[in-house]
Amino acid sequence: xxxxxxxxxxxxxxxxxxxxxxxxxxxxxxxxxxxxxxxxxxxxxxxxxxxxxxxxxxxxxxxxxxxxxxxxxxxxxxxxxxxxxxxxxxxxxxxxxxxxxxxxxxxxxxxxxxxxxxxxxxxxxxxxxxxxxxxxxxxxxxxxxxxxxxxxxxxxxxxxxxxxxxxxxxxxxxxxxxxxxxxxxxxxxxxxxxxxxxxxxxxxxxxxxxxxxxxxxxxxxxxxxxxxxxxxxxxxxxxxxxxxxxxxxxxxxxxxxxxxxxxxxxxxxxxxxxxxxxxxxxxxxxxxxxxxxxxxxxxxxxxxxxxxxxxxxxxxxxxxxxxxxxxxxxxxxxxxxxxxxxxxxxxxxxxxxxxxxxxxxxxxxxxxxxxxxxxxxxxxxxxxxxxxxxxxxxxxxxxxxxxxxxxxxxxxxx
Length: 414
Known about the structure:
Blueprint (H helix, E strand, L loop, with lengths): L8 H5 L7 H6 L13 H10 L3 H14 L4 E4 L5 H8 L8 H7 L2 H4 L1 E8 L11 E7 L4 E3 L5 E5 L2 E4 L6 E5 L17 H21 L3 E6 L5 H16 L12 E7 L5 H20 L13 H38 L7 E4 L7 H9 L6 H7 L27 H14 L1
Antiparallel strand pairs: 1-10, 2-3, 2-7, 4-5, 5-6, 8-9
Helix pairs in contact: 4-10, 4-11, 8-10
């Protein structure tokens, strides 16, 4: 029987694989992204990519799709007074704009947001988050332990102030605190398309109006030939529509125009846009011009985007939860259970499927319907409208006030 080596405590409780000596000596980890290497110019590359209409629209689509899930607080083991306090903080009423700014992590791989707290003296001694400001990524770097540093004028300052900087890493790995930029995978299609634009712009500037070249024969010195060429060029340049001219010793006139057609350029742009769509959303049927595609393929690609957006929503959820934990700890002390901020990322049934379930008599929570399907709950009986339907005689309606009114009218007839 093979003898088993007992675990060594030092080996088990420390990192065996460590960073190289250079990284340890510098005490910071440069961004491993090939495009973004921690310099201002490199981050500007991603900003230039965002000026591409296709890239901008797809990144915005991904951000809005990730934040469209219903969000709210669950109390769990949180004390009632703590739960009530968190829900009373104005900034938590509508986090959409703040969360979308934090999703600049999709552009650069990570985002750092500074939390501005209101003065406790003006809030009954309570620490209340007043603003969330997402800063530019080139202001920051990380060390090998994922500690955050502020970069300014070539110097690095450790940001060890608690409750101040909220970080969000998009798709990080265990050895990369900078995360992964969504734009990185579409850099080359964007670059190829940009180069194509530059080529066609130059060609259009040169050849959009056809030029005329005169071929002539002449004897004499080079100086005499050059003067004659300039004279013929000036005459041709001065010609206007409908005019006529004649000149000596000119044997032929040639036109120089742009070769190829705009259709060739469209093929290049469409091919690049398809690759950009695949890279950013995992789909092309709904986001690019394609030659064809089946409904089944479209549904599969839509599911891929949906699953990707769920993961992004969970990244945002984790960052916001950190802020809630800080707020509870500052005001009620450590160890107090905080409310849980949750996105409802479950794949809900369509509204048509919900209506079918109601027709079949499946019991459904009204409050759940109002929360998840964008339906405003009625304020009272007078604010309630229920359409007459064939199911109303069986008492199967979406609102009890209609049944109560029906019984009331029946009592009046008696």
